[in-house]
């Protein structure tokens, strides 16, 4: 954040300098439907232990300069799950925390990966992730009722893009809002660009329903619902 300091002059009052901070519109980013990357998955028969998520978190991102405490990893589920956002070279993007809000400074055109780590030695978790309000598995509006990825005890896994099939994803790349997947998908909304959502459930019993309300803010899980998403994410339809 740019701070402007006023100078008090004896006998005269200096004119206040113009506010040169970039406005929110000029620094907004979304995530595009990137190149196809190999990523193989299979299904398992596991159930949620509770219909309530252990944690639901939103990580905001934009091109705005970072401000606040610098983190390399954010934690969920009382510290049992860690999230890093990785650059293409494998290093962690810095995440800035101020007043309890976590933000990432992205760069248009750069690829990123969501990396989750399970610090528990005994518990298995389900990770339901969204980017720009869209479920990364199905491309549908994010819902806590959608099914996610399984994170086994002590394991690390990476989500590299929107899932196109059981063997391929479309890479996550920071982009302008106009070029984002959310802006060019029938299920997406430009108003939800700039957020990465993570919901964590412990596995073994019934599936949940419902979601937190977001009001006027960008929403990581914008849709109510209690059923799993069907199929995988469809490609964008550019205007």
UniProtKB/TrEMBL annotation:
Signal peptide: 1-15
Ranges for region Disordered: 208-239
Keyword Signal assigned: yes
Alphabetical UniProt keywords: Signal
Protein name: Lipoprotein
Organism encoding this protein: Paracoccus halophilus
């Amino acid at each position: 954040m740019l701070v402007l300091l006023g100078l008090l002059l004896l006998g005269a009052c200096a004119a206040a300098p113009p506010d040169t901070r970039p406005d929110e519109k000029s620094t907004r980013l979304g995530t595009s439907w990137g190149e196809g990357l190999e990523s193989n998955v299979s299904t398992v028969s596991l159930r949620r232990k509770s219909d309530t998520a252990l944690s639901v978190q939103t990580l905001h991102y934009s091109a705005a300069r970072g401000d606040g405490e610098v983190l390399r990893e954010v934690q969920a589920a009382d510290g049992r799950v860690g999230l890093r956002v990785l650059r293409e070279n494998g290093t962690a993007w810095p995440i800035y925390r101020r007043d309890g809000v976590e933000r990432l400074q992205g760069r248009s055109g750069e690829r990123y990966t969501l990396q989750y780590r399970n610090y528990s030695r005994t518990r298995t978790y389900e990770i339901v992730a969204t980017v720009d309000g869209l479920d990364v598995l199905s491309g549908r509006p994010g819902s806590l009722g959608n099914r996610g990825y399984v994170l086994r005890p002590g394991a690390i896994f990476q989500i590299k893009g929107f899932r196109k099939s059981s063997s391929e994803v479309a890479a996550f790349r920071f982009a302008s809002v106009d070029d984002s997947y959310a802006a060019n998908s029938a299920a997406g909304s430009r108003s939800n660009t700039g957020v990465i959502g993570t919901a964590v459930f412990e596995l073994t019993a019934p599936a949940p329903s419902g979601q937190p309300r977001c009001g006027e803010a960008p929403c990581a899980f914008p849709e109510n619902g209690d059923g799993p998403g069907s199929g995988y994410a469809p490609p964008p339809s550019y205007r």
